[in-house]
Amino acid sequence: MTATEILASLKKMGNEGTARVLRNHGAHDPCFGVKIGDMKPLQKQLKRNYALSLELYDSEIYDAMYLAGLIAEPERMTKKDLTGWVRKASKPIAGYVVGPTAAGSPAGWDLALVWIKSKKEIECIAGWATLSARASIRPDSELDLDEYQRLLHVVERTIHSAKDSVRYQMNAFVITVGSYISSLTDSATDAGRRIGVLHVDMGNTACDVPFSPDYIQKVKDRVRIGKKRKSAMC
After folding, report:
1. What does the alpha-carbon distance between residue 31 and residue 18 come to, in Å, rounded to a whole number?
2. Comparing C-alpha atoms, which of 155, 179, 178, 176 is closest to residue 166?
3. pTM, whole model, 2 decimals?
4. Rounded distance, CA 175 to CA 188, Å?
């Protein structure tokens, strides 16, 4: 299928009610309103396709940009590719597409460390999302655990002064480190307790911000600490 044919298929699958919900969660227009579950058969058909993912993302249609993340080949994504993606991203695309894709790229780690220091909200979201996603899919032996420990301190020190959407992503980072890096579970839990309960403006949604120690404890109760994911995109 060509990008044009895929866009036509996505448009047919769209629903205005779903689009409205997605917009409430930060999706940008144009947005067809395609449910992620409805994209899965298309993802299976297209498989992984680096060139097509870049073309779909460049359409700047929300649903196509999400699909681009599902079929991307992260290991082929260059610094230039990822820089272009973050520049065009809305908040949810930065967190749920750019971050997971960058996590599998050779350029992702270094970019993420730059992004989290940026004054641009979108870049900060993408940076913390990349660091989280990387922790969830990479074996601990491939992670810089000392740096993750340092980043926990960075979150603890700066989270309360961050913008709402960045604060939410930083909280997710604490949860991810505690859940996927077993040697840092206690450190992440302690950091979460010192951070305390967070108040984040989630807009016109029913979403809550989880208290990180409680969330990590639930993962521990399910005996899932340290169990890595097969893919950062979902």
Report:
1. 9
2. 155
3. 0.96
4. 7
Token pair of 61, please? 């249609």
Q: What is the DSSP string of 184-226?
A: GHHHHHHHHHHH--------SS------HHHHHHHHHHTT-TT
Give CA–CA dist 113/102, Å, rounded: 12
CA angle (32, 36, 37) in 5-degree steps = 125
Half-sphere exposure of 205 (CA within 13 A, CB side): 15
User: In angstroms, how far apart are the furthest CA atoms of the chain?
Assistant: 51
Indicate if the pLDDT at residue 207 is higher than 80. no
pLDDT band, very low/low/confident/very high, at 6 (cuts 50, 70, 90): very high
Tokens representing 32 are 């067809």
Q: Which residue shows structure tokens 């230039």?
A: 80
> What DSSP designation does 98 have?
I
> Residue 154 and residue 133: Cα distance in Å, rounded?
18
pLDDT tier at 206, thresholds 50, 70, 90: low
Range list of H helices, 72-143: 79-88, 91-93, 99-103, 108-115, 121-137
> What is the Rg, in whole angstroms, of the alpha carbon atoms belonging to the chain?
17
